[in-house]
Structures are given as structure tokens and as C-alpha cells.
Amino acid sequence: MKILPIHRDIIEYVRSRNLEKKFVKQVKFLENNVRHPSLEVELLEPRHLKFYSFRIDKQYRAVFIFRGGETIEIIDANNHYR
To answer: Would you give per-residue pLDDT tens digits along the chain (82 residues)?
Structure first.
């Protein structure tokens, strides 16, 4: 999979919460294998919009979409419990 460049706001959000290493690690897993077990990829509701999320850690997740068959765009990182 190809990951599109990550928006500056997402990078700043991740850095401000000291998640940069975890985020980079998970993005590498995403790039190599979307079904990697530690990502815990989920199709979000409403399902017809085809937004997915993956785990950064127990508290934080990132939201992404597929842009064509082999391209992913990460569009958000957030606190999963807020």
C-alpha cells in the first residue's frame, strides 16, 4: 500500500500527545499489511462512507480512507474514548 503524505495537523496532534513513535510504527504496519493484527482495523459507521480506523495505542486511533486500490490517506488521529 502507498500512504499519501500525512497532513501537518495530524503530525502535530500525534507529537503533542507523545505518540510519534507508536504512530510511525503503526503506519509502517498499515503500509505493509492492512490486516496486521496490532492495527485492529475497523470499518466505521455509517459503513457506506467507507471510513476505516486503526489503533495507534489503547487510547488513540487514526482514521483513513482508500484512495484507489493501493493508496491510503490518513485523515485524522483522535482519542478513541472522547
So the answer is: 899 999 999 999 999 999 999 999 999 999 999 999 999 999 999 999 999 999 999 999 999 999 988 999 999 999 987 7
Neighbours of 65 (CB within 10 A): 14
80: enclosing H helix or E strand: none
- 10 Å Cβ neighbour count for 59? 13
- Scanning the chain, the segments in alpha helix (DSSP H) are 8-16, 20-32
Give me 3's grid cell. Answer: 500512504
Q: Which amino acid is at 23?
A: F
Q: Amino acid identity, residue 27?
A: V
Please state whether 37 falls in left (phi above 0), alpha (psi between -120 and 50) or beta: alpha
Alpha carbon separation from 41 to 36, 50, 51, 65 (Å, rounded): 8, 12, 10, 11
